[in-house]
Design brief:
Ribosomal_N-acetyltransferase, single chain, Acyl_CoA_acyltransferase, seven-stranded mixed sheet, Aminopeptidase, alpha+beta, RimJ/RimL family protein N-acetyltransferase
Length: 208
């Protein structure tokens, strides 16, 4: 996908090297944990290695019935973070979930909103999703602001243990009917990939 400022693509090995560097440099302040699984609570080298292993694991376990698709986000020629979209029995449920992170030194530039919008455009316009879900801890104000800016609605709460303490997570849901297609967003070379998402190309239509 391309947007006015970004490119989102499946990572090459060189891209993963850069993404691992972003993880090692830092993703958030040490006294705050935005993730349900605290993968950043390790030393920089282990964060870098775990980032690469995470992508390899996704590739090896991919099936049309259960896929996790993680893109690297390119801004001004650099890998700055990753945007993930997951689908479980997507051909039936028509629902995806999303998650993401950006290297700390690239935050505050609107990249998070733009890359989430890109993957939502892929989900709704490209894959025909009916719903997209997300979640964030109630004190993760940046993530919640991105979701609400893009039109998500609250979809209940869940309680979690975070660093040994209880924490509330806000679930969010965006319906296709509430999605406004952004200007300048494009999807490239999708049609040959549709079977990997559990879908079949429409012989009478070109990819968006």
């Amino acid at each position: 996908m391309t947007t006015p400022r970004l490119e989102l693509r499946l990572p090459s090995l060189d891209d993963l090297d850069q993404l691992a560097d972003r993880a090692a440099e830092g993703v958030h302040d040490p006294d705050f944990m935005p993730f349900g699984f605290p993968w950043t609570d390790v030393q920089p080298l282990e964060r870098a290695r775990g980032t690469i292993q995470h992508h390899f694991k996704q590739w090896s376990s991919w099936s049309p019935q259960n896929w996790q698709c993680s893109f690297v986000t390119i801004f001004e020629g650099q890998v700055v973070g990753t945007q993930e979209m997951d689908g479980l029995d997507f051909a039936v449920t028509r629902q995806v979930s999303t998650g993401s992170w950006i290297g700390q030194r690239f935050q505050g530039k609107g990249i998070g909103t733009e890359m989430r919008a890109a993957v939502l455009h892929l989900a709704f316009a490209g894959l025909g999703a009916e719903y997209a879900t997300s979640a964030a801890f109630s004190d993760n104000h940046r993530s919640l602001a991105v979701s609400r800016k893009l039109g998500y609605r609250d979809d209940g709460i869940s309680m979690h243990s975070r660093r040994g303490r209880i924490a509330r997570q806000q679930r969010l849901r965006l319906a296709q009917d509430d999605w406004v297609t952004p200007q300048g967003f494009e999807i490239h070379h999708l049609e040959p990939c549709l079977p990997f998402f559990g879908l079949q190309p429409d012989p009478g239509e070109a990819s968006p």
